[in-house]
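I have been asked to look over a protein record a colleague put together. Thanks in advance; the entry in question is below.
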Amino acid sequence: MTLSYYSFLMAITWFSVFILVGDFLRKKTGFLLYYSVGVLLVLIGLSILRLFLPIEFPFTMVLHSEDIFPVIQAVLTYPILTLQGFSITIITPFVAVWAVGSLRFLVQLIRRLKQDSMVLDTYYEVEDERARRYLEEIVASTKPGQQYRLIVSPEIAAPAVVGFWRPTILLPKTNLDDESLQYFVAHEWRHFLNRDQWIKLLVDLLHCALWWNPVLQPLRDNLFQVLEIRCDLGVTRHLDELKKQNYLLAIVNALECTNEANDPVRGVTQGFWMAGATTKDEAVKQRFEMINKYQHDIKRDTVVFVAAVLFAFILSYFVVVQPYYPPPADNVTLSANAGTERFYIIAHGDGSYSMMSEGVFVDSIAPEDLSKPPYNALTIIEE
């Protein structure tokens, strides 16, 4: 297994393609009803895994690009300035902006996480025995012994959950009936059980690293919508039709509270709240349809579709595109044991050097090694 610039570019490309496919499928409520939201989560999960594993396997086939990639590489590595022996190429400022932007977003994320932990102690809390009792019952039946915190406050407009190891459930102080209050508590606790906070953090970190990639916004929107639907289905799985309608009314209530408030959960930026990700009409309608029509059974077609997604994931490793530079006519053999392989060196415009074999990238060479064997016996081609 090897890692190269080109395998990294292929990883970003496949990641983007998978995310765009997921964006298309997420908007098809009929697809989610038939195949389940789990299929979409598998697709998103594999797309992220593809990004984190930008490697080439022994079976990976190299597609040579003789026209497009070499030109792009020549343009991006064209030197525009040299400072104290360091060559600044066209791509240098882009990489600098990428790095500065990633650092900026990472600092903002850390500040938001710190702010969330600090703002919890600033709420004006009121006692709500009903909410406390319902939460105790849910915790005892799902994850006994789990530590948590409950905050009921008039400063909170919509139910939410924050925290990773010790969750905090945030509830508004309202005159809700017992059933709606139970749904509020159950929905937010379900987010914690599903580890949705960790998933959100992972996506936020991806945004820090690839903030320039336009597919990150569809990824966030679609993933958060699917996580909300998964919570809805988990809460309503064993409810009869009447109780499902009451659950939908609870969502409507949460939406109304969210829309009326400028800051539904004051100061909290990283949490999940019952209506925070679904204020768009299309998203709300999709949640309602899923709750009313979803069947909790695993179909054979679902298994087949998941297998197809896994197959596409594996196929993405079969090909990598690399620039191809034709070898010179008088190229020499690297060593007596090299067989028929012929090697040469490409001198790039940015001052770096690449060893090639029949147009295929082999390794990067440090300038100080050019005078050492066996590199000093190879032909050097100016890019």
